[in-house]
Write a structure and sequence with these properties.
Layout (H helix, E strand, L loop, with lengths): L11 E2 L3 E7 L3 H6 L15 E6 L5 E10 L2 E7 L3 H12 L5 E4 L2 E6 L7 E4 L8 E6 L9 H11 L4 H4 L28 H10 L4 E7 L8 E4 L2 E9 L5 E7 H4 L2
Antiparallel strand pairs: 1-7, 2-5, 2-6, 3-4, 4-5, 7-9, 8-9, 10-13, 11-12, 12-13
Amino acid sequence: MAAAENEMDGFVRLEARAPLKISGADAESFLQNIVTQDVAGLREGELRYGCLLTPQGRFLHDFFIFRDGADFILEGEAARMDDLIRRLKMFRLRAKVDIGAADFAVYAGAEIPKADFSFADPRLPEMGFRSYLPVAATGAAGAPDAYKDRRIRLGVPEGGVEIKPEIDTISDVSLDRLGAVSWRKGCFVGQEVTARMKNRGLAKKRLAIVAGRGLVAGAALVQAGVAVGEVRAVNAAGGAGLAVLRLAAAEA
């Protein structure tokens, strides 16, 4: 097996990711009404991927979600967890919902430690598995760069640096192709704009895997003197990355 294929054998702890617990009598309906994923259809033992958007259909947060009995666990970006909690509480109103931290550490890899909460990554089969272990029972394992490198190789963006909050749409960064949206469920925040873009083919940007020397995250990609996109993430070696490209430029 080539090195690129087994770069994430074993598992790595994802310090940049953190879990959040949503509990209470109205937890399911609360989430179902606001997030892009179908929470009502979520089964025990299943992991789904979704987002929270602005009413204008712009990205705010991406997360994984699974059931823990009557509760729901959301795995989001650790550095922006306070913002996610704040935004969720804005929608709570009179709903019987509690929002707080969950005592899990997040792991990912081609192989994962056995746990009550271990799942196939729903975005792509090649992304392997995710596992949620009690923090007190876990220790450091593996190199986080291996996880990021695999994401980049597969064209999978993540978090509020690679995906720009309140700027990018779902389609700009190809999250619609990674199962982040349930098109069969009812309304969610930003649903009208998101559905219109899909149904009318209005996407003007897409995520692409790019290669080249000296790639720098945040740098513009220029073609014939014209900016055609922006690098969003670069692998550890610096020779491959993810970029958001204008479709008109990519098809030229």
